[in-house]
Write a structure and sequence with these properties.
8 helices; 249 residues; alpha/beta; Rossmann fold
């Protein structure tokens, strides 16, 4: 059974080399992994984004970066945002990579399911699990297109020009969030996942399919018909000119 587990590891194909290059650029540009970090936690839903993050992070260990420990954290439950992949599948992936997998349980129920409440619970579970493992740095699989969506959501909802930041100290929790996929677009991740055999997973959340983020994604698809580079330009503008309010204690 373990032989069927899809793994993405060097030596890479052409796309894998390109993704690792962009991944490394983000790590260096924003000082996401300094030499004092010996443990990194990964928020692992099991979807294409978080698995790509896990594979790339595992690939660069000891290659220009410290040989840090990786602790993958998966939030399971009856209803939980993410891919709906089984814990057994992730256990096999992490076993192959010799990575510690930590399982947490969400309390979300269908009758009370709501994005904000679910997100807060998931983050709290992940933060606490990371701290218990001794990891004060947590990597999330938010990519370039997520950042473009976040920029528009903040602009439309709060009149704030603020995208995802590559590195955010969460002072109240004593941990730091990093986003090493910040330079990588979703389509490249999707293609990479197909090439390496882990692209069959899709989001199972019944609420997320009708979320405001989903609506913004549809809006961006319409805009792309006239401005093909809109996602990349929005994400770049967010990095260059976006608010850094999230960095303030």
């Amino acid at each position: 059974m373990n032989t069927l587990v899809p793994l993405a590891q060097p030596p890479w194909n052409a796309l894998g080399k390109e993704l690792e290059s962009r991944f490394r650029k983000a790590l260096f540009d924003f000082d996401l992994l300094n030499k004092n970090i010996d443990k990194v936690a990964v928020a692992l839903s099991g979807g294409k984004d978080s698995l790509t993050l896990l594979y790339l992070l595992h690939a660069i260990r000891g290659r220009g970066f410290p040989l840090f420990e990786i602790h993958a954290i998966h939030v399971d439950g009856e209803f939980s945002c993410g891919s709906g992949v089984s814990a057994d599948f992730l256990q096999n992936v992490c076993r192959k990579l010799e990575i510690n997998l930590i399982l947490c349980e969400s309390t979300q129920k269908r009758e009370t399911l709501e994005c904000y409440r679910c997100s807060r619970e998931r983050r709290t579970l992940i933060f606490q699990a990371a701290k218990n493992a001794g990891a004060s740095t947590i990597a999330f699989g938010h990519h370039r297109d997520d950042s473009a969506q976040t920029l528009l959501l903040n602009l439309f909802h709060k009149a704030e020009f603020a995208a995802n930041l590559p590195k955010v100290p969460m002072h109240d929790y004593g941990i730091t969030i990093i986003r090493p996929l910040i330079y990588i677009d979703e389509e490249s991740i999707r293609t990479f996942a197909k090439q390496y055999g882990f692209a069959r997973i899709t989001c199972q959340c019944p609420v997320g399919q009708n979320s405001k983020r989903k609506a913004v994604d549809q809006l961006l698809k319409q805009i792309e018909e006239h401005f093909p580079h809109v996602r990349g330009n929005l994400a770049k503008a967010g990095l260059l000119y976006g608010s850094d309010k999230a960095l303030r204690p």
